[in-house]
């Protein structure tokens, strides 16, 4: 029998972000190695984290790799994403639900375009705490690392983070993975910085249960399982839930986190829910599991949207009424038509109020963040003001 999950420490969701090849996956593996050597985790080798995206049935692609570990004071789910597009999708939509992030910057290369875009995304989705891992510190010289550190602090400050006081830790994921004592200590210092700098977020435990569906799986002989991070509330085996998007109401018959059964999942937990009698094809990424009657789907809403300028990866030309980009709302990806009302056009760099008519209904509420995407890149970031 499987060992049940016992909640002894606060749980936080963190993740590595940063430019391709700066060492995110190597560092993730190194963290698990350092903690496994300390006896509070299981080593997850590089190629188990960085495997090609798994294709589940019906083309749902798993684009998040979670590893689990504990420090002395916290239990972490740590997500490492294979490619830049996965960051944009999973972070911006809130699928990654990061309570804090480790920004990995190669001390040899400095800030690169994806470094800057990930900081921007983090700001937009409300990741308030970033710890910097100045990686590959084994390979370059100190003066270069000093320059890169200044550059990173400045980048953070420009995006509204406290760049001057953000922890910046010089590490070598590669050498720590090889067991080098000096660099093992550097990864421990990084974890200490995460433990102390990233606070345990306020969890909305009393709110009705809500989980945006990230992935759907079938367990032979048991039924359909949906996975994702609990956005708010709590859920127990036996609870009634509805799946918005699928139009079904049913009962949760099983609950697990990282393969361990649990009695109750709460806001912030990464979980798998086994649902009674739901056909596999009925549920998809983008659907929302919620306490029955607690949320309402909508097609029309008003939002404030920041149209990204070209220097932040956005458009070079204005958008006007009739524009039809993709809206990434929680884990859903839906086309929508933009109405700018009297203003009629919005230039890159503008923040505007717009009305959006989505191609299908999704659960919406004031305050919810979303991304606007076009041709595979983020062109806007918005917040819902009102729903119709
Ligand atoms: P990712 O794309 O950010 O996940 O980067 P990877 O973890 O795949 O690493 C990219 C390359 O950088 C690989 O060849 C790694 O071996 C190398 N690398 C990663 N961390 C370090 C480090 O701390 N020092 C050195 N010298 N090389 C590293
Ligand atoms: Mg990687």
From TrEMBL:
It is found in: Cytoplasm. Mg(2+) binds at residue 25. Keywords: Cytoplasm, Elongation factor, GTP-binding, Hydrolase, Magnesium, Metal-binding, Nucleotide-binding, Protein biosynthesis. Gene3D superfamilies: P-loop containing nucleotide triphosphate hydrolases, Translation factors. PROSITE patterns: G_TR_1, G_TR_2. GTP binds at residues 18-25, 80-84, 135-138. GO terms for molecular function: translation elongation factor activity. HAMAP family: EF_Tu_B (MF_00118_B). This is Elongation factor Tu. It comes from Streptomyces thermoalcalitolerans.
